[in-house]
Amino acid sequence: MSDTQVYLKPNVVLEPLYDRWYAWSHLVSPVTAAMNTIGRHLTIMDSYLDDPAIHAEAVLNPKMKGGPFMDFGGGRVDEVNALKDEILKRQAKTIEFAKAVKELDKILVAEAKGFGLETLYDKVPDVLKGYVELYYDRNNNADFRFFETLVYNSEFYNRDAQSIALWTTDNDHRPFCLSTPRLNEPDVLHLNIPFEHPGIDDLSRMKRTGRPLSEIKQILGIKPEEEALFETFFTETPPPSYKKYTGDKIRMRYFGHACILVETKDVSILVDPLVSYYGYDSDLEHFSDADLPDVIDYVLITHNHQDHILFETLLPLRHKIKHLIVPRTNSGKIEDPDLKQMFDNIGFKNVIGMDEMQTIEFIDSTITALPFTGEHSDLNILTKSCYLVQISGFKLLFLADSRIVESRLYKHIHKQIGDVDVMFLGMECDGAPLTWLYGPLITKKLTRDQDGSRRLAGSDCAKGMALIDIFNPKEAYVYAMGMEPWLEFISSIKYTDESNPIIQSNKLVKLCQERGVIAERLYGEKELLYSRKHVPAAEPALS
């Protein structure tokens, strides 16, 4: 088989890991990775080692789903302990860095009383010196920001902690992964390569383009004892040929959650990529990466949450993406890492940071980044954008998990962009509390009531209808609900008919339909074709 043209099987998972924990965006940005190492990973591991039985019991309780409990049934204690020791050794400098962040927070609370901060630079922990700037906000509260580029180029950006786990899936269901590290399994092959490694692109191309097995083994450094398992991930059977869309209309395809592909014969735009697999029987019809074009002109990222930036999808697509658009920030704040820097450091090319109300124009089309409020627990986070995609005069508005907190903002936006044809709105309106996502970054402990009042929540019916009233769409689609089975492993969401987001979205769909607005809560897959409002003039192809 080594010299035969082979293809990567369509149900092979490229699972990104950091210290053997499922890698999401806060585990790439070096400051948030350090804080999660001490505030999440080691904390959960210590808790498990103290009482494995409590974790085993909690995992079986549906009400505890998504909580900080390891899913090892109370076993594998020696392996967990060994992994903890390995992390403590590999991340010694990073752990020192994270503890220094906590220490600096306390120093500023105790000593920054509104007077000049210059003398406090001497008290900055040594490991942070040269990486932070101290400042006051307008209310005389002291804080600090990081020079992120310098941190990425330091010993605190730990590429050695990054790896890829290769394994084959035969269904859409996976256990919640953010609380349980990936220990060794007989059917999982671990590649100790950083996320920027070009071999990830070479391997991913093999889903459509055959290559001799001997070549990819050499590129990825496969050891003789790994070859037997590695070969199981390939087949000599070519995949079905991708059929490029060549029609004159605008085609919209829903891939699940917030992932939507907009295509014309000239351009393709993919929003918040999160794509399931194929090659096995599924309970739910869905598109997969077999339905993505060979070249994706623009990928749009709305915000920095683990269900909207999924490296498991993005890394295998990296070689196809011509332009990656992210919300722009360089605030240097711990809770708001720079997404452009992050993607630049893991091998993505042509990453574009967009400001609010900034527009990119191409082939009779525009992409405009719009303000995004809500769903970030009232933290001052700038890396979030809604997007207006306009093609030949036809307007599609992607509102992600926006929650309208001041209607006049959206009325101001409407004055600039006008009514839209199609609106997509997230309605996971309960949301987890602040600490579920941002807990490791917080030094001052919140009360339970404070934490519960600051939720990662999208729009309910009233908030959603307020947006419908402002933008007057002809069609409205509820999305980003985390309903699909292939989302459960990162969202932990499992709805019933009595779940509040289902009740609220049902009400919104019904109210829209009563008004004559086409409305639906998307689930699984959906394809729609729209007519252009005017015929585009001939233009050169995208560069």
Question: How would you describe this structure in keywords?
Answer:
28% helix, seven-stranded mixed sheet, 543 residues, alpha/beta, globular
Walk me through what this model shows.
- With 543 residues, the protein is an alpha/beta fold.
- 28% of the residues lie in helices and 20% in strands.
- The protein is globular, with a radius of gyration of 24 Å.
- 42% of the residues are buried.
Percent range for helical residues?
A: 25-40%
**Spatial arrangement of strands, main beta sheet:** 15-14-13-12-11-10-23
Q: What structural class do helix, strand and pairing data support?
A: alpha/beta
Report Rg.
24 Å
Count every helix, treating DSSP H or I runs of 4 or more residues as helices.
16
Q: Characterize the largest beta sheet: strand count, sense, and whether it forms a barrel.
A: 7 strands, mixed
Shape: globular
Query: Could you give the count of β-strands?
Result: 23
Question: What is the straight-line distance between the termini?
Answer: 38 Å
Unreliable stretches: 538-543
Instruction: Name the beta content range.
Output: 15-25%
Mean pLDDT: 95
